[in-house]
Structure formats: C-alpha cells, structure tokens
Amino acid sequence: xxxxxxxxxxxxxxxxxxxxxxxxxxxxxxxxxxxxxxxxxxxxxxxxxxxxxxxxxxxxxxxxxxxxxxxxxxxxxxxxxxxxxxxxxxxxxxxxxxxxxxxxxxxxxxxxxxxxxxxxxxxxxxxxxxxxxxxxxxxxxxxxxxxxxxxxxxxxxxxxxxxxxxxxxxxxxxxxxxxxxxxxxxxxxxxxxxxxxxxxxxxx
Length: 204
Ligand SMILES: Cc1cc2nc3c(=O)[nH]c(=O)nc-3n(C[C@H](O)[C@H](O)[C@H](O)COP(=O)(O)O)c2cc1C
Description:
The structure is a single chain. The protein is α+β, with helices and mostly antiparallel strands and 204 residues long. The chain has one domain (16-202): Pnp Oxidase, Chain A, CATH 2.30.110. It has helices spanning 10-18, 64-72, 86-92, 157-160, 166-186; strands at residues 25-31, 34-40, 43-45, 54-60, 74-79, 107-109, 115-117, 122-133, 137-149. A seven-stranded antiparallel beta sheet has the order 2-1-5-8-9-4-3. The protein binds flavin mononucleotide. Flavin mononucleotide binds at residues 36, 38-42, 58-60, 63-65, 88, 92-97, 101, 157, 172. Flavin mononucleotide is lined by residues 36, 38-42, 58-60, 63-65, 88, 92-97, 101, 157, 172.
C-alpha cells in the first residue's frame, strides 16, 4: 500500500483531470479470428501532421482488448455518436473474455481487419507504432492507416455521464472501485522495455 504524497489532494486532482477532454470511443481490434471492442476515454491526439494522424490510447492491462491489441498491433478507434449511449453498457461494463460483445452490433472490417462500427461519428483505423508500460495500463502510440467522419455529433463522457440510466451508473461506480485497487497495486511495477516485437502484419 502506497501512502499518497501529502501535497496531493484527491478532490483537487479530480477537478483538474476531470476537466480534460474525454472523447468516448469504442476501441475495436481483431487478432486472428477473434474480434472484440471496449470503451475508452483516455485518448489524445499525438500528431500535428494531418496526413499522418496519430493518437495515444491508454488501455488497462486487465482488459481482454489489451491482450488482443498486444498480439495483433492493430485497433480501430470508433468515436461514438450522440445516439450510441447503449454501447457504453454493451462494450464498457463487461469483458469480451466471457462473451461475444460484438454479436448484434453491425460493423465492417477496416484495412487492419479491426471492426469499424456502423453509425459512429467517425473512425481511425490504426496500427501500433510504439507503446509505453504504465504498470496498470499501456499507452499505445497508434498511427491511422485510414479514417473518415460519418456525420452526427460526437458523444463526450461529460455529456454521456448524466444520461446514464441509474443501473448503469451504479454498475460503473462498482466497476471503477474494483479497478482502482488493481491500479494501485500495479502502477509501480513498470516494465521499461519498449514495444520490441511488433507483429509482422503491421510493420512498414
Ligand atoms: C465511460 C468509460 C470509459 C472507459 N475508459 C477506458 C479507458 O480509457 N481505457 C481502458 O482501458 N478502459 C476504459 N474503460 C473500461 C473498459 O471499457 C472496460 O473495462 C471493458 O469492460 C473492457 O472490456 P474487455 O475486457 O472486453 O476489453 C472505460 C469504460 C467506460 C464505461
């Protein structure tokens, strides 16, 4: 158990970090015959060159999607549209280790083989170019091979959160409480090795 530094006040940290932009996206991947997707908000633009778009996407080690991305080196970032609130429940509250989460969700395969979900605000179909371990998560630097906007209005977490049905909000609070313990236990155990063994399928 690590004692928090005395000069860190969690409510202040929540106010500072909570105000950062948090786009809602379904991170979808394919490894071999397996497809899966999860919800993520920890996504940042990481390129000023518009014809080489890059993002940093943070994925927790415990997620099935993490294993699949680590194996395949590909992911599609499907930015959610205003009417895709149900995907938060379908993809963000349970793991694809135990069920086929994409069953019943229409999608096509992108250039990387990753699922492009129908009706999204838009997508970037990406390959991993590097990765940094954070102990509890991996920050994947990804580069888009293809992408487009489909129209509509982007769904942000700050707008979606108050629209969640009470049952989903309760489930979310329960899930986060468990994940906080896992992160606290693991975030000091950082593997400094670089992304050394990229799958041949996505090397330039
Ligand atoms: C609103 C919301 C935001 C989330 N943001 C992230 C995130 O940025 N990174 C992450 O790894 N997981 C995030 N998650 C959690 C995963 O979506 C969730 O743990 C999912 O069940 C993992 O599924 P999997 O095991 O099939 O990969 C978020 C979930 C929700 C509902």
